[in-house]
């Protein structure tokens, strides 16, 4: 329940302030250009803060679970996931099947806060993030090596 709350609050925080498509101001070429620029800048901020925001949330979850990062941990170690537990997202090597996201969608119901799942199983708005977070000390990321024909 609290993880759902974290994810909902985090997703809502990333969506707040999203410019509305409707405006009470009469459009003019100058205002249209400003609106396009504002929309592009908002999008840039959402995309740029997506990963750091997700990493911050994962760190908070580890702290809440009683596995805080050691004080001597460097940012380089943090960037290479040298902490206990892992965060897996659909569409990456550890969970390549995007269709599996439908189950997570049923559990969290993010459409209640304005995040939709497209027919291609991508999230909209695109700066949204979903993940499965595990705390087991033996969790690792993995990749599949080259497959040779026999």
Walk me through what this model shows.
The structure is a single chain. By secondary structure, the protein is mainly alpha-helical. The chain has four helices and four strands. A two-stranded antiparallel sheet has the order 1-4. A two-stranded antiparallel ribbon has the order 2-3. Strand 2 and strand 3 form a beta hairpin. The termini are far apart. The N terminus is likely disordered.
What is the secondary structure topology, with strand pairs?
Blueprint: H1 2-15, H2 29-64, H3 75-79, E1 86-88, H4 101-108, E2 116-117, E3 123-124, E4 132-134
Antiparallel strand pairs: 1-4, 2-3
Helix pairs in contact: 1-2
In short:
Helix content is 42%, strand content 7%. The chain has helices at 2-15, 29-64, 75-79, 101-108, and strands spanning 86-88, 116-117, 123-124, 132-134. It has a two-stranded antiparallel ribbon with strand order 1-4. The protein has a two-stranded antiparallel ribbon with strand order 2-3.
- Please tally the helical runs, counting DSSP H or I stretches of 4 or more residues: 4
* Contiguous uncertain segments of 5+ residues: 1-27
Q: What is the topology, as strand order, of the major beta sheet?
A: 1-4
Beta percentage is 5-15%
Provide key terms for this protein.
single chain, 150 residues, mainly alpha, Cobalamin-dependent Methionine Synthase, domain 1, two-stranded antiparallel ribbon, 4 helices
């Amino acid at each position: 329940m609290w993880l759902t709350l974290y994810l909902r609050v985090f997703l809502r925080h990333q969506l707040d302030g999203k410019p509305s498509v409707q405006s009470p101001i009469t459009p003019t070429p100058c205002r249209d250009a400003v609106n396009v620029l504002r929309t592009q800048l908002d999008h840039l901020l959402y995309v740029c803060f997506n990963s750091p925001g997700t990493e911050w949330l994962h760190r908070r979850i580890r702290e809440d679970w009683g596995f805080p990062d050691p004080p001597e941990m460097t940012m380089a170690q943090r960037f290479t996931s040298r902490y206990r537990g892992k965060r897996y997202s659909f569409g990456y090597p550890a969970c390549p099947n995007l269709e599996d996201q439908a189950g997570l969608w049923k559990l969290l119901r993010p459409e209640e806060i304005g995040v939709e799942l497209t027919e291609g199983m991508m999230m909209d708005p695109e700066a949204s993030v979903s993940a499965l977070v595990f705390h087991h000390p033996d969790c690792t990321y993995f990749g599949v090596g080259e497959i040779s024909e026999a």
